[in-house]
Amino acid sequence: MKIFATLASLLVAGAFAAPVAEAEAEAETSPNPDLVARGPGGTNYVQNYNSNLGSFTYNLNAGTYSMYWDNGVNGDFVVGIGWSTGAARAITYSATYSAASSGSYLAVYGWINSPQTEYYIVENYGSYNPCTGLQSLGTVSSDGGTYNVCKGTRTNQPSITGTSTFTQYFSVRQSKRSSGTVTTSNHFAFWAKSGFKASNFNFQVMAVEAFNGKGHATVSVS
């Protein structure tokens, strides 16, 4: 959300600065708050959007990152590790995630290039449910849990291509967890009933987004 409603600025749910790729990630911390770093061969991918809300470190070889945030309102912070090109894959992760009193998500996060779409599979969240105020599409069962599914439209908001209008899809796990496997194909298939196109992928990461309050997280992705 980017203070407009999603993971790149989120007050309602999420979207962000267009990624910039590096040939290889040599530093343990990003020198640029809008930098996206890519590991050897493009298999490891780090997404970082930061509007002066927090700080993060990452280790591409280990597939881990840690972050903390501490801010009142009107900030947004998104960090994730994953793939420069998304797919219908199973993503296994393990995290420590402390965000009870803040606006934050722990989620599989990604974009479709065309039609431009932002999506989240939310495993855990703080004080704000990302489906609040959005169109309910029902529920989907996956990976031992039930997810509430919703859809919304962001009009003239920041996106991976600058300011644009795009659709958002969310699956929000009813029983929160901070480790497990996310079978993205189950969500893509359910969203497809409402227009989601699982093709022409941009990046796909296991991310933490924070847009107010304070908290911290450490995430490993395999």
Brief write-up:
One of its GO terms (molecular function) is endo-1,4-beta-xylanase activity. By secondary structure, the protein is mainly β.
Structure characterization notes:
The chain is built from 1 helix and 13 strands. It is mainly β and 222 residues long. It has one domain: Jelly Rolls (Sandwich), CATH 2.60.120. A hairpin with a 4-residue loop joins β3 and β4. The relative contact order is 0.26.
SS-derived structural category: mainly beta
**Coarse shape:** globular
- Mean pLDDT, to the nearest integer, reads 78
CATH topology: Jelly Rolls
Distance separating the two termini: 25 Å
Number of domains: 1
* Unreliable stretches covering 5 or more consecutive residues: 1-44
Would you state the CATH class? Mainly Beta
Question: Can you count the helices?
Answer: 1
Q: What Rg do the Cα atoms give?
A: 15 Å
Report the order of strands and helices: EEEEEEEEEEEEHE
Strand content: over 45%
Helix content: under 10%
Give the secondary structure arrangement, pairings included.
Blueprint: E1 37-38, E2 45-50, E3 54-59, E4 64-71, E5 77-83, E6 90-98, E7 103-112, E8 117-125, E9 135-142, E10 145-159, E11 162-173, E12 179-183, H1 184-192, E13 201-221
Parallel strand pairs: 8-11
Antiparallel strand pairs: 1-2, 2-5, 3-4, 4-13, 5-13, 6-12, 6-13, 7-8, 7-13, 9-10, 10-11
